[in-house]
Design goal:
GO terms for molecular function: electron transfer activity; heme binding; metal ion binding. InterPro entries: Cyt_c-like_dom, Cyt_c-like_dom_sf, Cytochrome_c-type_DH. Residues 38-126 form the Cytochrome c domain. By secondary structure, the protein is mostly helical. It is built from six helices and two strands, in the order H-H-H-H-E-E-H-H. It has a two-stranded antiparallel sheet. Strand 1 (89-96) and strand 2 form a beta hairpin. It starts with a helix and ends in a 5-residue tail after the last helix. 22% of the residues are buried. Bound molecules: heme C. Heme C (HEC) binds next to helix 2, helix 3, helix 4, strand 1 and strand 2.
Length: 147
């Protein structure tokens, strides 16, 4: 019976090592990504609450005041800038679909996850489904800082 103790201790010590190496990663942020469908669905709710009053239900915007998100060349050509604008706000002159806007969108204080979700929603709605865009991830949003 005694001899069984040795392998048992060996196996146990393996577990202890495993546990220790795991705990060293405790300090890294835990990034749990959603699948695209879930992110789009959650982004729709964010859009209704935070964006719709200016960009309107179909993302059509108001010419000269609130730029459109529907088939917006700015959104499709400037992925990173678009994410930053939603995360930090956007001010100054921009041209969207040939129309000049010189207005101010203040930061809405969204979480990185809400930014990712609403980006996935607008990139996959209003006729923007044709844009060849990969999913905006929480990791991508978290990695961006204000210029
Ligand atoms: C108070 C009105 C307002 C709200 C609310 C608002 N925006 Fe904007 N948004 C603007 C304005 C104004 C601009 C253009 C700013 C400029 O002229 O530099 C803009 C620009 C943009 C742009 C880049 C230009 C384009 O049309 O492609 C994106 C993308 C965008 N907004 C997305 C969003 C999203 C997503 C939300 C909700 C989370 C949101 N906005 C909420 C007013 C608003």
């Amino acid at each position: 019976m005694k001899f069984y103790i040795i392998p048992v201790i060996c196996v146990l010590s393996l577990f202890v090592r495993e546990y220790q190496s795991d705990s060293s990663s405790l300090y890294e942020p835990i990034v749990q990504e959603k699948n695209l469908e879930q992110s789009i669905a959650d982004g729709k709710a964010v859009y209704s609450e935070f964006c719709m009053r200016c960009h309107l239900p179909q993302g059509e915007g108001v010419e000269g005041i609130y730029p459109p998100l529907a088939k917006s060349n700015w959104l499709s050509e400037k992925r990173t800038k678009s994410i930053k604008s939603v995360k930090y706000g956007l001010k100054g002159e921009i041209e969207v679909n040939g129309v000049t806007y010189n207005n101010n969108m203040t930061s809405m204080g969204l979480t990185d996850r809400e930014v990712a979700d609403v980006m996935n929603y607008i990139l996959n709605s209003f006729g923007n489904e044709d844009i060849d865009s990969k999913q905006v991830t929480l990791k991508e949003v978290a990695g961006l800082s204000e210029d």
